[in-house]
Prior knowledge:
Layout: H1 3-20, H2 31-40, H3 46-58, H4 65-87, E1 97-98, E2 101-102, H5 104-108, H6 110-129, H7 141-155, H8 160-169, H9 194-222, H10 227-254, H11 257-260, H12 266-269, H13 275-279, H14 281-300, H15 307-315
Amino acid sequence: MDKNLLKSKIEYINDILDKNLPKNEESYGKICEAMRYSVLNGGKRLRAIMLLEAFRMFADDRKMEEKLVYPFITAIECIHGYSLVHDDLPAMDNDVLRRGKPTTHVAYGHAMGVLAGDALLNYAFELISGINLETSDAKYAPNVLKAINTMSVKAGYSGMIGGQVLDTTEKYTKDIKITGFDELDTISSDINDIEKLKYVLRIYELKTSQLFEAALMSGAILGGATETEVKALETAGYALGIAFQIEDDILDLTSDAATLGKSVNIDEKNDKDTVARLYGIEKAQALVELYTLRAIESLKATGRDAGFLCELFESLVYRRL
Length: 321
Ligand code: GRG
């Protein structure tokens, strides 16, 4: 992976975010400051990069990039930012450190933690539903609407929030039968209690993959991809999200707060079933590789130039943060 190229893309995204987030306005107290703090405080910008690169995979030219893609880039990082702010609240993970800095509720108080998350979610949809197209560009309107719908479904009750609900309020029982995950059949002899693994992966699919899917799919939709191509990107986001979340579990067990910029051993503290805790680091790492490969295969299946995304996905297999 070309580290300088990645760095320049992150800077490009950060510049868009800085320009498009609301500026501090005294009349609304500190809400804009807290929103900016929550989003501009670092982060790998993976979802924004995926969205941009997916657009570039399919768009004939970059003429519409600023008008169509910048609001979506800001929106996906606002949605991701809100989910982290709420996930850190005392009612959820009760965390004090995020991206190496105090979490939003620690810096601004609990009420502002809730409000900043709410405001970021609303602002995301304010931006993308407010895209103003000239009459000559009206042909892009159906795709904008489709991308907004994709974002709202994937972030909603049957997507990211649904995953968080299962993760924080439900427990696995033997009666639960999860369909799908056929790809696991190739390794099932190696894993004890495959049903439980499927249940945990279902949570990962919802809480992590769905926002990756939203990023890749909406970028592709805005770039004019066909339904089959959008589906291939959905599969890529699904597989990458699972790989990414399993690696997240591994890092929770093996890394330290200074490297990660967030607290470690949180899963143990919350007695959470994670793939790494249930099956050990070696098997978890094998699953990360399996799902990353699947994600890359899905990108390649489009026949488009997905070189940068493939390298990015590969670089996440043994990521350090
Ligand atoms: C609605 C009250 C309320 C809460 C919702 C939806 C939700 C809370 C939380 C989402 C679940 C969640 C936090 C999933 C984890 C996803 C994940 C691995 C986040 C870390 O992503 P990175 O590593 O973060 O890309 P950076 O900091 O690099 O942006």
